[in-house]
Amino acid sequence: MATGFYDLPNLLGVKGEDLPKVKHYYDEPHSYAFQKIVVVGAANSAVDAALETYRKSAEVTMIIRENEIRQSVKYWVRPDIENRIKEGSIKAFFNSEIAEIREYEIDIQTLNGKITIPNDFVLAMTGYQPNYHFLKNLGVEISPDSAKRPLYDSQTQETTQKGVYVAGVVCGGMKTNEWFIENSRIHADLIMEHIRQKG
Ligand SMILES: Cc1cc2nc3c(=O)[nH]c(=O)nc-3n(C[C@H](O)[C@H](O)[C@H](O)COP(=O)(O)OP(=O)(O)OC[C@H]3O[C@@H](n4cnc5c(N)ncnc54)[C@H](O)[C@@H]3O)c2cc1C
After folding, report:
1. Is 121 helix (H, G, I), strand (E, B) or coil?
2. 125-143 per-position pLDDT tens digit
3. Distance between CA atoms of residues 78 and 58, nearest Å
4. Does the Cβ of 182 fall within 6 Å of ligand 1?
């Protein structure tokens, strides 16, 4: 299984999420020019979407559950977003969550109560998750901690279900920044070697 995690976005779970103006995949910035957009999240995808759309003349507001931009944001991008927020070019609500989405406005739950702002598009950059339904149906066990990794032997990549191997970012479970292209290339070699040894 090398199915990644990109097919299943982490949903906001709020009223109005099914409106066509809500995107769980960021496409390109030009279509948001001169529009009021909200970016939900504070990791790399959210930051890239916020900066790109801001630089193509969108009016950008970020809604961030935590009290800061994620530490895992690329170190050369982090100062850019922090300074845009500091100078007010990009608005940010920290310790806040999107509460409801309507066609022309959204509600935000902030530490100081609920507020409503006008809105044209919501970019929900809230991450993705592996297809646990598929993994479990194959008989693969999942770690009981919050990482929810498929259980596998790191020497062979074989899971707890004999003959079922995992490769790529799916190995990290909910830790979607653990594996990437460069460090997961080895998985294919390990799997092939194990199959070869089994004869
Ligand atoms: C914007 C962006 C920038 C990135 N930049 C970098 C970078 O610079 N360097 C880097 O190392 N990584 C980068 N990454 C991460 C990189 O894309 C992933 O690490 C890599 O693609 C993971 O490879 P994978 O094969 O594990 O999964 P994926 O590339 O996600 O491939 C999984 C495949 O499985 C398919 N699939 C899923 N479920 C099923 C099913 N049930 N049946 C059949 N097929 C299925 C999917 O459609 C997909 O084709 C970036 C990611 C994004 C989104």
Report:
1. strand
2. 999 999 999 999 999 999 9
3. 20
4. yes
Token pair of 55, please?
């630089």
Q: 6 CA to middle of ligand 1, Å?
A: 6
Distance from the CA of 53 to the center of ligand 1, in angstroms? 23
- SS3 of residue 183 by DSSP: helix
| Residue 38 banded pLDDT, cuts 50, 70, 90 | very high
Domain ranges of the chain: 22-124, 132-198
Question: Which one of 1, 6, 51, 157 would you pick to mutate in the ligand 1 pocket, going by the greatest count of ligand atoms within 8 A of its CB?
Answer: 6
Cβ of 111 less than 6 Å from ligand 1: no
What is the pLDDT at residue 199?
77
* Pocket residue to mutate for ligand 1, from 72, 180, 182, most atoms within 8 A of Cβ: 180
Taken in order 91, 97, 102, 107, the sign of the CA dihedral is negative
Q: How many other CB atoms sit within 10 Å of the CB of residue 147?
A: 12
Total number of residues shown for the chain: 199
CATH of domain 22-124: 3.50.50.60
Q: pLDDT for 148-192, tens place per residue?
A: 999 999 999 999 999 999 999 999 999 988 999 999 999 999 999
Neighbours of 141 (CB within 10 A): 14
